[in-house]
């Protein structure tokens, strides 16, 4: 008994001693997620961190939970919602251990995905075949993912989502084919393939950055490779590198064309800098600035500065020329300021710019044929209360053939609005006095014709001419005897200039000398005219039942008399005389070669006439609802001439006849002109240039011209077929609509046009031998299919019996891109051009393919 009690006491002591030992150990540091008990601060409960930050909501037709493996399986119409993400798929599995969600699209019996997995996050929809998502890291991997961005869609073999902003893709295709995007077709008509793509997304914009990228058309790879591409998907303008085109030209070598950089500048400006680089040393720099302010103004500035190098240095064919072109256009919105407008069209080029085209566009646009270039800057001021308009102009004109330039700086015109000299007493203007109108204005001009290298130098200022001219025109008209219109007019010209001419013959040098005197002087001239006009009608009717029912003739005869004195008489002082090399007294005007022109010499007292004719015919027509149809025999046929009573010799002028008519329902247009010389031309001297005698009545043809134009089309030769009624079967192949017959052959409208033009010109004048020009031209197009088109034009010179300018073109309008091919096989510049361009705005300037031939005149073709 005592032993048992002692044993129990000993056990209790050992337990108390052990507990006291444990109580004296230093306690371990509490974990951060420990929860303190409200009763005792020494007691803690450690809570394990939840792997999910939100509730995972699931639903499906068939759900199964594997508790030991912590797996959830969803089959048929499966859906998972987690935070801002929703996954819809045919099959979804959830692994709680790995924090993974796996989704797969619906499969057919062969295991092919027939319905994709649809993932929606932040309002953006993605389609994939398979999808893995880590709820802890928020990273995802998708296979065959389809992502729509802006105007296009991206389909990637494998896509990895690092976060909500960065996506990495492998072997991805990008296309803007609208049919493919809207799933009307299973294959895109084109796509750009890159093996590595990074998609960067933000709240306001997104962009694609790729490595090497290749263009595929109809699943066929093309030779268009880009080393990289950056595509910004944003409504705002974005800066970026501009991808160049590449190729080879015989005269300049291999090249990169259009390599550059685009930079938007504020809201109203943008800058594009392009460069063309050639392996034989040629180069070209092309800055371009565009600007626009809504409802105010818009314009652009471009420059073309470069050096053309041809041949090999040290050899005879080596040439090196510097070229430049400066172009500026500016237009003002009409609503900006109706009282003050400014416009500019400035185009200044070096003399040999178009003879050394580094850009083939100048050849296809036929700018290489330019012989003159014009530039104008205009400022116009109108007034609310003053009846006048002031216009200031600066103009510059270049002539590439002569190397001369015309500069007008400044030129000012003050125009007074037309007004009536007398007020009407009754409110309705009647008679000659009440209908008198006055038009007047002033014109100030500073003009110089100089060499291009003399511009704004002392030589140019010495040649500068200044002139002021005022014109006053009075006119009135009234009706006489109900059927005649009587008109009177008078013109007064006042001119002032700073330079006059003094001409004399230098017997020592045996030359005629023109000496310019710097002094203010001027002249005044006047002329008057009176005219009488009426209209006559004539009708010839035929018997009833005749095919031709009637012919109507409308004639508009008019007569006019013009008078002006002889301003070359000594009393005016406008003309002087000098003795020429033969000793003959020769008159000349002191204003000759001046900017304001010279007064007319010789008295003018001419009676002129003009007879206008219009002839129409009425014929029976079953196709017309009225039963008759009008046919124009002559739309216009005019005869004009004059007789000068004051002339000492040759009072009759050359008679002119002009006619215009149309036939075959106004399809064939004919324009003719004829010039008849009433006096005999004498060639007895043996010279090629004849002398006009006083023998009246010979009426030789001095000039004749006829132009014909006849447009043909498929509609002219038959009515348009109603395929919907004729064929019951309708189908579509690659965006082209067809109607099919019983043998399954496709039918569609093959619209075509062909314009035939012909021109014949005969000009003789006083020459013994006439100059003739005759040519026939064809210009047309035909649609092989609704989207295939062939077009071309050619001209045949019947005098030289050679083909002139000829062009053949093919074009294909695809759903999302266009293909054009143009070929000029004849002429000085033989060239072909092949172009592929994407229609989408985002790629319209970035993705193009061009290939052009050599442009040398004698280059092999």
What would you say this structure looks like, in words?
The protein is mainly β and 861 residues long. The strands form six sheets. It has a 29-stranded antiparallel beta sheet that branches. It has a six-stranded antiparallel beta barrel with strand order 6-7-12-13-11-10. The longest helix is centred in the N-terminal third of the chain and has 22 residues, at 2-23. The radius of gyration is 44 Å and the shape is elongated. The model is unreliable at 16-44 and 844-861 (pLDDT under 50). This is LPS-assembly protein LptD. Residues 208-679 form the LPS-assembly protein LptD central domain. It holds the Pfam family LptD_2.
- Name the average pLDDT: 81
Share of β-strand residues: over 45%
The secondary-structure class comes to mainly beta
Shape: elongated
Distance between the termini: 131 Å
Taking Cα atoms only, what radius of gyration do you get, to the nearest Å? 44 Å
Number of helices: 6
Largest sheet: 29 strands, antiparallel
Q: How many strand units?
A: 54
**Relative helix content:** under 10%
Low-pLDDT regions: 16-44, 844-861
InterPro entries: LptD, LptD_2
Organism: Chryseobacterium candidae
Pfam family, one: LptD_2
Protein name: LPS-assembly protein LptD
């Amino acid at each position: 008994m005592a032993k048992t009690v002692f044993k129990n006491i000993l056990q209790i002591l050992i337990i108390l001693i052990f507990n006291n030992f444990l109580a004296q150990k230093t306690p371990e540091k509490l974990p951060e997620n420990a929860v303190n008990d409200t009763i005792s601060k020494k007691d803690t409960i450690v809570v394990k961190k939840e792997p999910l930050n939100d509730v995972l909501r699931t639903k499906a037709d068939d759900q199964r939970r594997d508790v030991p493996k912590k797996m959830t399986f969803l089959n048929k119409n499966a859906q998972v919602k987690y935070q801002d993400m929703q996954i819809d798929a045919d099959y979804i599995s959830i692994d709680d251990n790995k924090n993974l969600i796996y989704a797969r699209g619906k499969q057919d019996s062969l295991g092919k995905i027939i319905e994709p997995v649809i993932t929606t996050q932040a309002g953006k929809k993605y389609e994939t075949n398979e999808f893995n998502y880590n709820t802890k890291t928020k990273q995802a991997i998708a296979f065959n993912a389809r992502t729509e961005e802006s105007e296009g869609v991206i389909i990637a073999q494998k896509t990895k989502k690092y976060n909500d902003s960065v996506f990495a893709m492998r072997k991805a295709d990008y296309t803007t084919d609208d049919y493919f995007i809207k799933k009307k077709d299973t294959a895109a008509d084109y796509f750009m393939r890159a093996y590595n793509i990074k998609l960067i997304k933000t709240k306001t914009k997104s962009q694609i950055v790729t490595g090497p990228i290749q263009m595929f058309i109809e699943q066929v790879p093309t030779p268009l490779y880009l080393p990289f591409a950056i595509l910004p998907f944003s409504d705002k303008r974005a800066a970026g590198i501009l991808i160049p085109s590449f190729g080879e030209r015989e005269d300049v070598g291999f090249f990169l064309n259009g390599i550059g950089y685009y930079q938007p500048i504020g809201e109203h400006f943008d800058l594009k800098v392009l460069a063309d680089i050639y392996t034989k040393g040629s180069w070209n720099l092309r800055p371009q600035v565009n600007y626009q302010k809504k409802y105010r103004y818009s314009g652009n500035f471009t420059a073309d500065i470069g050096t053309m190098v041809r041949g090999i240095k040290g050899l005879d064919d080596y040439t090196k020329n510097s070229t430049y072109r400066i172009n500026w256009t500016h237009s003002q919105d009409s609503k900006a300021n109706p009282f003050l407008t400014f416009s500019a069209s400035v185009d200044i080029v070096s003399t040999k710019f178009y003879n050394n085209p580094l850009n083939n566009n100048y050849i296809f646009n036929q700018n290489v044929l330019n012989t003159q270039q014009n530039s104008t800057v205009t400022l116009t001021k109108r007034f609310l209360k003053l009846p006048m308009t002031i216009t200031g102009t600066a103009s510059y004109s270049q002539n590439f053939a002569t190397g001369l330039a015309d500069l007008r700086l400044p030129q000012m015109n003050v125009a007074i609005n037309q007004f009536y000299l007398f007020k009407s007493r009754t409110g309705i203007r009647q008679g000659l006095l009440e209908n008198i109108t006055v038009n007047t204005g002033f014109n100030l001009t500073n003009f110089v014709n100089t060499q291009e290298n003399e511009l704004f130098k002392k030589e140019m200022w010495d040649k500068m001419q200044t002139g002021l001219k005022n014109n006053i025109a009075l006119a009135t008209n009234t009706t006489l005897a109900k059927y005649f219109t009587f008109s009177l007019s008078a013109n007064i010209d006042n001119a002032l200039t700073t330079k006059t001419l003094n001409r004399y013959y230098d017997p020592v040098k045996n030359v005629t000398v023109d000496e310019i005197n710097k002094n203010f002087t001027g002249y005044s001239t006047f002329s008057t005219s009176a005219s009488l006009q009426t209209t006559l009608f004539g009708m010839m009717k035929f018997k009833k039942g005749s095919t031709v029912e009637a012919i109507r003739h409308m004639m508009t005869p008019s007569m006019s008399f013009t008078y002006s004195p002889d301003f070359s008489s000594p009393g005016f002082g406008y003309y002087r005389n000098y003795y020429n090399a033969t000793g003959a007294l020769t008159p000349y005007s002191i204003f000759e070669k001046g900017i304001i022109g010279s007064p007319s010499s010789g008295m003018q007292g001419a009676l002129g006439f003009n007879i206008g004719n219009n002839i129409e015919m009425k014929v029976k027509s079953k196709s017309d609802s009225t039963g008759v149809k009008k046919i124009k025999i002559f739309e216009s046929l005019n005869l004009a001439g004059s007789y000068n009573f004051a002339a000492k010799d040759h009072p009759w002028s050359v008679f002119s006849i002009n006619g215009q008519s149309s036939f075959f329902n106004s399809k064939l247009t004919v324009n003719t002109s004829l010039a008849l010389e009433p006096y005999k031309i004498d060639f007895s001297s043996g010279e090629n240039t004849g002398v006009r005698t006083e023998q009246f009545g010979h009426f030789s043809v001095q000039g004749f011209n006829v132009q014909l134009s006849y447009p043909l089309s498929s509609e002219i030769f038959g009515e348009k077929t109603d395929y919907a009624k004729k064929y019951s079967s309708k189908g579509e192949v690659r965006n082209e609509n067809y109607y099919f017959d019983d043998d399954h052959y496709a039918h569609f409208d093959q619209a075509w046009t062909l314009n035939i033009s012909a021109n014949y010109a005969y000009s003789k004048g006083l020459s013994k031998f006439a100059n003739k020009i005759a040519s026939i031209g064809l210009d047309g197009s035909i649609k092989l299919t609704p989207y295939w088109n062939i077009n071309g034009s050619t001209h045949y010179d019947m005098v030289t019996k050679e083909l002139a300018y000829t062009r053949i073109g093919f074009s294909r309008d695809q759903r999302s891109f266009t293909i054009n091919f143009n070929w000029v096989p004849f002429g000085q510049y033989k060239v072909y051009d092949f172009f592929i361009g994407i229609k989408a705005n985002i790629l319209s300037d970035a993705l193009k393919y061009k290939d052009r031939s050599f442009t040398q005149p004698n280059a092999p073709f």
